[in-house]
């Protein structure tokens, strides 16, 4: 596989405070979600009422290692993928602490796992349970856990893994809606904590508290909205050279098998509008929420990631284990579609652009979770974590497993 470096000499992202953009006049109803309709059905037309499409059930049980067909996974020549840890239902985004322990959040199961590697095997325990869709990140000796209605900080967790958390919830002023409000959190190069607040619907006017990315000081003070028009981002990172934020965003449902596609966005300044609910993907006007010039003033994506692909975690590879042509290349995990007649995604892809972030090329990196012949899947890749030796961990929410991707040897 030939890969070109993604590099640029561009300005530092989110250099200043974002301002709320003016709201245009809307010519359609706000489409509130009916109380008796499941959130995922909102936005269906009458002729779609009989559709068999529905979100795939999570496999929130501990799956034995012998039942995980890692042998089916395919990676480019010279790479190797192996089962690294299992038995963690719903495992999602991971963060590595200073002592080498790895912490991972979940969604529906509400747990945070602590994973320990003794050099021979990996064991896990539940650090905290019964949270509402928690995510984690490690920063300056503390583990941060953010759920829809709670923010906890475990100070000094390296030295004391049983430390009791500090509750920071009141400082974050969290809005209560659950749909698309599940979390992914990370600290940026500016030392700020970035938190998404997805749209509380499939398609609607989201209000002032949703469809945005915010940043906070580490203690929860100093909130700023740095991006609007973001329907549902479940992964972001910063370019290792330009320090610009790149993030995925899920397209709306019930506009057909092939539209709108998910997005890969690049934020070059604070306050940009990424289109929701009026404009999707590469300039697709919404059919239900309309305005004049729906994509006017909107920052369009660097690349579209495929229809209903559920693009999740993103990672710029910075290690030395992989071949040099992978340096600073963006890897994107696509969890896989449900709102599509024929399934799409269920893989990890590499995205390369030119020096200005244009002319994207999307190529396979990890495949084999989806059997296209039978249109069935067994795993759903979601997030990546680079290890000190340059290998890459990849979490699989469906199997409750983590795979290790290495090169050579």
Automatic annotation (TrEMBL):
SUPFAM superfamilies: Soluble quinoprotein glucose dehydrogenase (SSF50952)
InterPro entries the UniProt entry points to: 6-blade_b-propeller_TolB-like (IPR011042), Glc/Sorbosone_DH (IPR012938), Quinoprot_gluc/sorb_DH_b-prop (IPR011041)
Domain of life: Bacteria
Domain Glucose/Sorbosone dehydrogenase: from-to ranges: 217-333
Secretion signal, residue range per the UniProt entry: 1-20
Keywords: Signal
PANTHER family xref list: BLL0591 PROTEIN (PTHR19328:SF40), HEDGEHOG-INTERACTING PROTEIN (PTHR19328)
Protein name, UniProt field: PQQ-dependent sugar dehydrogenase
